[in-house]
Amino acid sequence: ATMKSLRFISAEAFVSNAEFARKSLRGVAHNLFPLLFKASYLLEQGEVIHDLVENWPLVDFNMGKLLGTTVDCQEDLSHRTCSVCLESCLTGLRDYVLNHPSPYVKRLKVVDLTGIKDVEVQFCECKKTMGRWARTQLLSKLCLELLVYLQQTQCNPGTFEISIDVLIDLFVTERNYELVAQALLKKCYCPLKICCVAFRSDNLALQKFFYIIKLTDPSLLRKLEIVHNVRLEMEHLEILFNSMHFPLLMSLTLPARTFNVRRFTATDERMLTNIGEKMGEMTQLTELSISFSILTGRIQKLLSPLKTPLKMLDVSNCSLNHADMAYLANSFHANHLEALDLSGHNIPDLYPSIFFKLLSHSSSVLRSLTLEDCNIQDTHVNMLILALSRCQKLQEFKFLGNPLSSQALKHLFTFLCELPMLKNVEFPVPRDCYPIGITYPIDDASLCRFDHQKYESVAEELNLILLQANREDVKASTPLFGSYDAAVQETNNELGAYLIKSFKETLEKFTTSLNKMS
């Protein structure tokens, strides 16, 4: 059990009787509100949470700090995205604005919802979560409802003077676009001001993406993720960077196929240079993800203008060549890389020594390394061990999709036990569990066609190696279809429908062209 102070245990007792707690709030000292809030959250007392927020007496309300580890309760609740609790919080916030006869002077200026973390396993009783997309949806809806209410009702004039910045990570898709766009458009009239700190868009037409990103106020944006079904190509990215400034941007994720150097013209080369220069103006940029673009021979052009060293770089499946790897290994970024993803590159055959150099340069800070589908075979394991042995800060190592035998995996695991900070390992299904003659990278159809019983017994042996080395703290798994992604999980119905629709359209086009041929 986690440590709780006597104060916290008393707070739990106080809020466990909702009716009593709600009646007694008036007599509660202001500095006890944070304590009562966390206790209510832990016990999922929605009504009490609502009333606490509705009468919040302090200047700020920071979810991450309120739910994180505190002196009174060490348990971190910031990854509990409990639907009951979050809905109570947000409706409480709306009612804070509307609640005139409140005995407290309204002091609230900033509400920060960005500290909420979406994770795979939920520990709340109700087992219903409210993810980032749903939080975006609900806050937008409440802001619009508030505006309608204020227009229709004779409100206390003081209500219009309330101005609360609500910091949030927005997640916009085709399905909630209209609602969010309306809320952002009318932001200046609403007492609750949506302040977008991070923005993720998926399954959204380009025109709508450009419109809504302008509404979010790019000058405040710290993180921008444009993923999957947003058809952003290099010329659109150039327009985006030329027409808007992102001075605070720390993290940028671009969708697959943003760049394709195989089709490059002289104009495209100039465009790429311009994009690199614009990124160079983003002095806070330390995280960059550009997976599944074809960037052969152009990494230097894109990254050399950056003034700040990157801490996170994902260039998986970008068809990098020897020159690209050499640039990375010798660049000033190498010594600062805490997370690196080089998946989808044939490292052992193309650039083993340069890779070795890159790892040795980043070894003092590297925390996460992903080398999926890199054609790492049994004969390369000793070289890999040598490269990793300097990475004493490594917490996460993912190497799914590599043709390694059970024997090689056991050898590797024996070494991994020696990495003191290691917490998470994602290892491939051993090659000897698949039918003889399987080719790598394994296609989706064959991915599950392995001897499951044999795999289970190997996995057991690998866990035993960890156990015998007293490393129960290391989680080892084989997520066949990649790691958990909260955002994808939450919107998979919409994305699934989108993919089926685009597949049908492709089929129809194909049928039409076949008919023309016949």
From TrEMBL:
Domain of life: Eukaryota
GO cellular component: cytoplasm
UniProt-listed InterPro entries: LRR_dom_sf, LRRC14/PRAME
Alphabetical keyword list: Leucine-rich repeat, Repeat
Family designation: Belongs to the PRAME family. LRRC14 subfamily.
The protein, known as: Leucine-rich repeat-containing protein 14B
Organism: Haliaeetus albicilla (White-tailed sea-eagle)
